[in-house]
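Researcher: Next entry in the queue.
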Amino acid sequence: MSTIKINVLHTGEVCVSPYLPYGDGAGTLKAAGIGVKKEDRLWLPVSAYLIEHPKGLFLYDTGWDRSMSPDGVFDKKAQIKSLGSRLLYETNQGRVPAGQAVGEQLAAMGISPSDLDIVMISHLDCDHANGLPQVRGAKRIVVSADEMAFANGGPAMNRVRYQDIWWKDSGIETFDWNGEEGPFGKSYDVLGDGSLVMVNIRGHADGQCALKITGEDGRYVLLFADGGYSTRSWKEQIMPGICADPESMRKSLAWIRDMSEDPRCVESLANHDSDVVPHTIELRSD
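Model: Structure for this entry, 286 residues:
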């Protein structure tokens, strides 16, 4: 019997305008929180995923670094420094209670960064890549070449959106597509056996990847990062308030819906779904 375990971890929370996750047509300013009352903002979980696989230990996304909340509470000054941008802080704030940074949770499981075979980054936004210092020392850290190119170039707003201080000293590598899965026929088979496949779901970011984790019996778990903000996103096909490529985002959301409704799909999870609590999923092959 072969078992893959997916541990859903919450690495703190992010505070955003309600028009960011569900602001289809609301406009960039509202989605960025401009003119939105503090009391109307939403606190959403920031997830990372530890995958215990017969071929090793893998991590998908890293969440927030401890430097966002040095004392485990909201800390404006620390966050601006950790984010590297006052403007980015105005768009989203974070808090990381004691023990919730990904490195702390791994340590509580008896896992050190050097035990991680590959850390896979869905895309390079702050609440996915800011925690990379927590896993420095992992055997490999990877992100799509398309995402790295987008973070280093792309539209002018990327100069605020992406700050290379989160990853520049991490030893991160880029990968090129080696498969044709997904809405754009671009995927990366991490182990070469189809069990861990990074699937390009651009729209939110050019190089963003969902992770499809498949057991020997063909059942799978889909982790779709910011391809949507909850189950509601794909069920109702709700576009977020900010996306780099709206047409591609619609195509990615439709693909997420189709994959999520497939009877072989065990669970389909967005990174910031407030209805999801930390838990462990097992893909067993008897």
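Model: The two ends are 5 Å apart (CA to CA).
Researcher: Noted, moving on.
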